[in-house]
Amino acid sequence: MSNASDSSHSNSTTSRRKLLKYGAGFGLALAYPNSKVIGANDDIRVGVVGVNGRGKSHISAFSGMKGVRVSALCDIDPNVLDARVNKLADDKNYGVQGFSDMRDMFEKGDIDVMSTATPNHWHSLAGVWALQAGKDAYVEKPISHNVWEGRQLVKLSRKLDKICQGGTQSRSMGSIQGAVKYVKDGNLGKIKYVKGMCYKPRTSIGQVGPEGGKLPEGVNYDIWSGPAEMETPLGRKRFHYDWHWFYAYGNGDMGNQGIHQMDVARWFIGESQIAPRSMSIGGRLGYEDDGESPNTQIVYHDYESAPLIFETRGLPKDKAGQDNWGKNMNKPDEFPDMSGISVVVVCEGGNIFCDAGGRVTMTDENGTKMDAPPKIATEDIFTNFMNAVKSRKRDGLYADCEETHISSALCHTGLISHRLGSLKSNDEIKEEIKSDPVLTARYESMADHLRKNEVNIDEKSITYGPMIKWNPDTEWAEGNGELDKMANALATREYRAPYIVPEVL
Asked: Which are the contacts of 294, defined by CB distance < 8 A and separation ≥ 6?
């Protein structure tokens, strides 16, 4: 009897995998034989789109909540989808639907909420389609691939009165909430500047050559490409991650890891719009590969209240550190024993540090360590979202879509300046920025970092981006002459039908 049961289970699993492999996973309910299929009840039903990487965390978080059921999964890679559906159905012992097209999930899936962890170029459109289908949406960071589409998602959430949360989960950390309150209450005096950092090891992705990379078997490349053109041949070796470093799909490390620290930095200074002026200095330096986005960069957001500086460093602290990049990254100058994936707030009365894990430390104006501000009781970001779904109260969200949109847009405007920049030498750059002591100090720190990695900065090797004026109300570049047209073209994109983000009036 046991053998017959095992055989039935094996055959069913194999048949499901064959169906998915050959693209028949549209609206197909995938559940283990004899598992209980939960009928209509009071559970909030979640569909997760993009389940290869960060999407696994979405599945785990929502499926572990009382009164919440992850009832559908969607992914364009049939092997990934099959593995996730089987595991979730096995863990929870109920029917799970699998889809290779989110449009089918919205139409046929038994869901109330969409949660997405697709590549960046899909974030806003996935959110828009979910809201249009009557679902609430949790959209991973950055909430957009470009400035314009992020604003359309925000406008639609308001128009349809839907709950839409961004994935900037640092806002759910009680230690950081307490630190932000402490600074905003004036306990460290006036903020001089805030510095976000993404000092994270990023080795070369290599070069694929004229033949290009290979698609994983069974992937629906048309849907994966979505709003972007279908690149042929594929310009990267690693299909499922290295899209981060290509402008058609990703936003570099500032829009990957760094968006979290950008968001916290903006939170500290209390700005609720994009900066009126932004510029970039940096490049993809230290190696040659197929990646496009900078691995070393300073972005300067010239807010009236205080400058927000963001620094990306993907190289180790020096050439010798390239033997083990992970253990040899730069640390913050102000907190040399702490993580380089962090935020430092430099104030008249001292400095405060927050890292990506929520660790907070503080020093006074003399550099003497002080007790960290008291933590605030919080809930995790997914629970916070689900509680807002239940209450229908947007003001309870830690990371409402508009907050994540603005911080995402700061990543975009920084990259726009970089993309419109020109190569300059170290001496030329120093001459350009000599009137700004804060920017000069941060650039000199970056220049020293590059020299230690044996990058020749005396040649025209670093891209110096223009200081672009932005209208914070319209979120378009204005007042830059002929540069406006070029900047605004990069603040949106040419969408490929039918994957078009609509303008929301």
From this structure: 252, 254, 280, 282, 283, 284, 285, 312, 415, 418, 463
pLDDT tens sequence across 33-78: 333 434 446 899 999 999 998 999 999 999 999 999 999 999 999 9
Tell me if 91 sits within 8 A of 67, measured CB to CB. no
Q: Using CA atoms, how far apart are residues 226 and 230, in angstroms rounded to an integer? A: 8
Residue 477, pLDDT above cutoff 90 = yes
Q: How far is CA 172 from CA 7, 290, 297, 403, in A?
A: 47, 36, 28, 13
Task: Report residue 207 as tokens.
Answer: 């070069």
| 3-class DSSP state of 391 | helix
Instruction: Provide the 10 A C-beta neighbour count for residue 348.
Output: 10
Q: Which residues contact 84 (CB under 8 A, 6 or more apart)?
A: 51, 55, 56, 59, 73, 75
Nearest Cα to Cα of residue 313 among 338, 335, 342: 342
pLDDT score, position 36: 40
What are the backbone dihedrals phi and psi of residue 282, each rounded to the nearest 5 degrees, phi first?
165, -160
- CB neighbours of 93 closer than 8 A, spacing ≥ 6? 32, 35, 36
Tokens of 29: 């309910």
Q: Which helix (H) or strand (E) holds 271?
A: none
Q: Are 312 and 253 within 8 A, CB to CB?
A: yes
Integer-rounded Cα radius of gyration of the chain: 23
Take residue 371 and report the two structure tokens written for it.
Answer: 């007790």
Q: Is 212 left (phi over 0), alpha (psi -120 to 50) or beta?
A: left
Q: Note the pLDDT of residue 42.
A: 80
63 and 88 Cβ atoms separated by less than 8 Å:
yes
d(Cα 27, Cα 50) in Å, to the nearest integer? 16
440, 387, 409: which is closest to 273 by C-alpha? 409
Contact 58, 49 (CB under 8 A): no
pLDDT in tens, 113-143: 999 999 999 999 999 999 999 999 999 999 9
Averaged pLDDT of the chain: 92
Question: Could you give the domains of the chain?
Answer: 2-169 (3.40.50.720), 171-203+249-377+401-490 (3.30.360.10)
Beta bridge partners of 108: none
Per DSSP, helices labelled H in 133-197 are 147-159, 174-184
pLDDT tens digits for range 212-265: 999 999 999 999 999 999 999 999 999 999 999 999 999 999 999 999 999 999
pLDDT in tens, 334-391: 999 999 999 999 999 999 999 999 999 999 999 999 999 999 999 999 999 999 999 9
Q: What is the helix (H) or strand (E) element at residue 352, kind and residue range?
A: strand 350-355
Q: In the chain, what is the straight-line distance between the N-terminal and C-terminal CA atoms, in Å?
A: 63
Residue 159 has phi, psi (to 5 degrees) of -60, -40
Q: Answer whether 227's CB lies under 8 Å from 357's CB.
A: no
